[in-house]
């Protein structure tokens, strides 16, 4: 849809210099349409000097109302019947560029009585004493970065997983005791790259946490963690991990699969590893459930709560991996070995004040044969 017409052209720089200049007439074509790739309704004004034209995006609802009024006026509808308002300069918010970033660092500045601009892509609301995450924040679908550090948040709503564009989430310095499994199965799996849960009261993360496969930065400092997710090795994109000053006695078996640039485990009460003192949980002969479960995992057979009871699915999700690569569930041998952290990270913060960069790693064995083979290799290495 094109409209040849005369437009008034004036310099946008004159008002900033305290000057005013009359506009000059120019032949132009005003076009209403959509860009080549789609994406909304746009108004394009093209002149001989600028044939590509200046483009302006319009709200579809407002545009329909505007064009309807013009159509009625063109048909000769009386002035009293037209939906017209008195001409007045627009509000600043109507002509300013949509706001994409907002920073709030005190409770008195927090907009409790009004909503946030729907165009926000970055929002920081720190030191506001927020007891929960407001629903108005959960409706900001364009958010890429959300910083709610240093508040009083105790629980995360499941709907935070509906923020489909969220890449960075900081919840440092709150009162969180958990990070729900439902969040790990939400759209955050595909978008979240940076997560800061430091300075909270979290004791453990769910096994589903390892579904957040796009994570690059993860901070868990100053919590009450007694263990890390045992399948943490599945976080193949993870490059920066900090779990300082927690209560970790050892690292999970899959920790050795990580490939990090920076690792900080300082201040954890790691136990002294002892490969010669195994915890034997073998059940001989293996139960039918153990046989079936091992086969399901080893042959990568698909399963879900639609096929199996939820508690059986949970058991399968918690399966352990033997050093030979086979799975084991409730029948296994468990021991701890020494791991040099430089084998998984380029930069390692010292584990303790003694200058150590080693930590105990939990290791599982599916049978007495596998443990015996490991033990032989271990004894030969220390001779």
Strand content: 15-25%
* Regions with little confidence, pLDDT below 50 for 5+ residues: none
Averaged pLDDT: 86
Number of strands: 18
* Structural class category: alpha/beta
Query: Helix content range of the residues, please?
Result: 10-25%
Q: Give the CA-based shape.
A: elongated
SSE sequence, one letter per element: EEEEHHEEHEEHHEEEEEHHEEEEEH
Main sheet summary = 9 strands, parallel
Give the number of helices.
8
Radius of gyration: 31 Å
First CA to last CA: what distance? 86 Å
Strand order of the largest sheet: 5-6-7-8-9-10-11-12-17
Care to describe what's here?
The protein has helices at 60-74, 92-95, 135-138, 181-184, 188-191, 288-298, 310-317, 368-381; strands at 2-9, 24-33, 41-47, 54-58, 101-104, 122-125, 145-147, 168-170, 194-196, 217-219, 240-242, 260-264, 279-280, 320-321, 327-328, 333-340, 345-349, 358-365. The protein is an alpha/beta fold. A hairpin with a 6-residue loop joins strand 3 (41-47) and strand 4 (54-58). The protein starts with a strand and ends with a helix. The model has no long low-confidence stretch (mean pLDDT 86).
Question: Summary?
Answer:
This protein has 383 residues and is α/β, with parallel strands linked by helices. It contains 8 helices and 18 strands. 17% of the residues lie in helices and 22% in strands.
């Amino acid at each position: 849809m094109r409209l040849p017409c005369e437009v008034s052209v004036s310099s946008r720089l004159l008002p900033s210099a305290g000057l005013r200049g009359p506009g000059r007439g120019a032949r132009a074509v005003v076009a209403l349409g959509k860009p080549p790739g789609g994406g909304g309704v746009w108004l394009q004004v093209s002149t001989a000097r600028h044939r590509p034209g200046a483009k302006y995006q319009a709200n579809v609802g407002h545009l329909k109302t505007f064009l309807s009024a013009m159509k009625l006026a063109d048909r000769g509808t009386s002035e009293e019947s037209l939906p017209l308002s008195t001409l007045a300069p627009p509000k600043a918010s109507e002509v300013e560029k949509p706001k994409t970033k907002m920073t709030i660092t005190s409770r008195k500045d927090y907009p409790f009585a009004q909503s946030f601009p729907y165009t926000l892509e970055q929002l920081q609301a720190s030191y506001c004493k927020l007891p929960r995450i407001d629903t108005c924040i959960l409706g900001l679908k364009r958010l890429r970065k959300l910083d709610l550090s240093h508040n009083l948040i105790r629980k995360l709503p499941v709907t935070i997983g509906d923020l489909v564009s969220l890449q960075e989430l900081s919840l440092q310095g709150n009162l969180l005791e958990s990070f729900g499994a439902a969040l790990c199965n939400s759209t955050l799996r595909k978008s979240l790259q940076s997560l800061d849960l430091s300075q909270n009261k979290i004791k453990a993360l769910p096994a589903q946490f390892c579904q957040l496969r796009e994570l690059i930065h993860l901070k868990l400092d100053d919590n009450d963690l007694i263990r890390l997710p045992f399948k943490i090795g599945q976080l193949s994109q993870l490059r920066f991990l900090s779990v300082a000053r927690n209560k970790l006695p050892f690292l999970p078996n899959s920790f050795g699969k990580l490939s990090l640039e920076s690792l900080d485990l300082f201040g954890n009460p790691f136990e002294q590893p002892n490969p010669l003192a195994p915890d034997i949980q073998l059940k001989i002969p293996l139960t039918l459930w153990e046989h079936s479960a091992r086969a399901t995992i080893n042959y990568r057979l698909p399963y879900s709560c639609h096929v199996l009871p939820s508690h059986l699915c949970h058991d399968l999700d918690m399966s352990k991996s033997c050093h030979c690569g086979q799975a084991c569930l409730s029948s296994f041998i468990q021991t701890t070995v020494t791991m040099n952290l430089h084998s998984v990270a380029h930069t390692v913060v010292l584990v303790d004040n003694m200058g150590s960069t080693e930590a105990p790693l939990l290791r599982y064995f599916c049978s007495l044969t596998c443990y015996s083979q490991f033990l032989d290799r271990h004894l030969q290495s220390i001779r």
